[in-house]
Design goal:
single chain, 462 residues, alpha/beta, Aminopeptidase, 2 domains, 26 strands, disordered N terminus, binds zinc ion
């Protein structure tokens, strides 16, 4: 057993957090597909939040985008520029033994997809670029708030006139500046002409040398994240228009609209839809959270830059560079006896699946189920808490999932000797495995003596 686990751990280390690739929209005959990349460096949240929103909050109604929002996902979660050095200097040459080899290969494959004719790479750069020296933060060596191209033209069938397209992008962004000092500029690095050693190794040069249009957009690191995202999205929307791509989005493209889109509550589903964590200003820790010993430790989040990660004695949920909360596991054998339960909410009988949140105005009650006990976390009335009318003032608020003290867990357990029949559920899609996990043997031994965990719902008091 010990040997088996150590092999498992090894395999997981090799395939650490991989970046996501998602499509939005449908490609048309005229090939208007744009590839958008974010998170090339882990410490550039403007780029990876902007790219993430293009998947979570945009609906492409004509044409298609392919988005990889979190290229250096490990570095994003670890909050550093690049775990194994700068990913954006590895496109000309990479050693097969480089830990980023697999990642670079995946990115190149996306770029070389015949369907893709334009590539947009989103970065956060220092200060504000100015053609003439103005100050320490505003001068020709700064990268912030620029549209960057490697050369004036590219030998491609579409979007060959890089300079004029980027110029137009700059003009468009400058019509929507929040402050005059944020003004965008075009920066042509003339990568090949000037034999720019760094830029020759970068992603955009790889794109143009493969006869496709590449634009990099840099938002200034001097700006708060939501303003960086605002400028990134202004740029991206202009390029999409250029590619004849149409879309709708769920928020207004204003600093406030972007801020609210980034800060909206996260939803993380665990273990094939057994548990929902609704993270709206979450508590710092979620204790005694049921974790399975007999099924995959996996999760699905409401965006692509969220990950559940193993730490030494806990798990953490990270949203981009930000820690959301820590999970302290309590291991159980999981049961598939039920996938839905009844709840009486404010006098009304409803049926709900697990991993759902129910809104409660005054009170709720769980009708008892044979062979099952109910545990309302933060309500202390005994072993089984079914058939009891529960209102908010009876709850111990320190057990709430959130700092507003409104959201509580209701957990269902199969009694040890009930021997309820397992149901077969539909296969769940898009769940990602939590990496590098090995369950302590002691926890497994303990779990085998306990009741089985069936599922959880959340109640939110209004
Ligand atoms: Zn960058």
């Amino acid at each position: 057993m010990r040997l088996f686990l150590s092999i498992l751990v090894f395999v997981n280390v090799v395939f650490a957090l991989e970046f996501s690739v998602k499509e939005n929209g449908k490609s048309l005959d005229d090939n208007n597909t744009v590839l958008i990349l974010g998170g090339m460096q882990g410490d550039e949240p403007g780029g990876f939040h902007a790219a993430s929103l293009l998947l979570s909050d945009y609906n492409i109604t004509k044409g298609k985008i392919i988005v990889a929002p979190n290229l250096a996902f490990e570095s994003i979660i670890a909050r550093n520029r690049g775990n194994f050095g700068d990913l954006n200097r590895k496109f000309a040459y990479i050693d097969e033994n480089d830990p980023d080899f697999h990642t670079i290969e995946r990115i190149k494959k996306l770029i070389l997809d015949p369907e893709v004719n334009m590539v947009i790479n989103l970065h956060d750069g220092s200060g504000f670029y100015r053609p003439q020296y103005e100050s320490k933060d505003k001068n020709p060596n700064r990268w912030g708030n620029t549209s960057i191209i490697d050369q004036s033209e590219v030998n491609s069938t579409k979007y060959a006139d890089l300079e004029n397209i980027a110029k137009e992008a700059v003009e468009n962004i400058n019509k929507a500046l929040i402050k005059e000092e944020h003004q965008y500029h075009l920066k042509n690095t003339k990568t090949q002409e000037s034999n720019d050693k760094d830029m020759l190794k970068a992603l955009t040069y790889f794109v143009v040398s493969n006869h496709k249009a590449a634009f990099a957009n840099e938002a200034s690191k001097n700006l708060p994240t939501h303003l960086r995202v605002y400028y990134h999205l202004l740029a991206v929307e202009y390029y999409l228009k250029k590619a004849n791509i149409e879309f709708q989005r769920t928020f207004d493209l204003t600093p406030n609209g972007v801020y609210n889109a980034i800060e909206k509550p996260l939803e993380v589903k665990l273990f094939n839809d057994k548990i929902l964590l609704y993270l709206d200003k979450p508590a710092n820790a979620i204790n005694f959270l049921p974790f399975p010993i007999n099924q995959a430790l996996n999760y699905k989040a409401s965006n692509e830059i969220t990950a559940v990660v193993l730490n030494s004695n806990s798990f953490s949920i990270n949203y981009g560079n930000r820690l959301q909360t820590r999970l302290y596991p309590d291991y159980f054998e999981f049961s598939n006896a039920l996938d839905s339960v009844e709840v009486i909410v404010d006098g009304k009988n409803i049926k709900t699946n697990f991993a759902q949140k129910i809104m409660v105005k005054n009170n709720f009650k769980i009708p008892s189920i044979a062979g099952v006990r109910v545990n309302v976390i933060g309500f202390d009335r005994g072993v089984d808490e079914s058939d009891i009318l529960i209102s908010k003032n009876q709850m111990q608020s320190r057990y709430s999932l959130d700092k507003k003290r409104k959201i509580y867990r209701v957990e269902f357990y199969e009694l040890k000797n009930a021997n309820l029949a397992d149901q077969v559920f539909e296969k769940k899609n898009n769940f990602k495995e939590i990496k590098k996990v090995s369950i302590p043997a002691k926890a497994i031994e303990k779990a085998e003596k306990k009741d089985k965990f069936i599922g959880m719902i959340l109640v939110e008091f209004q």
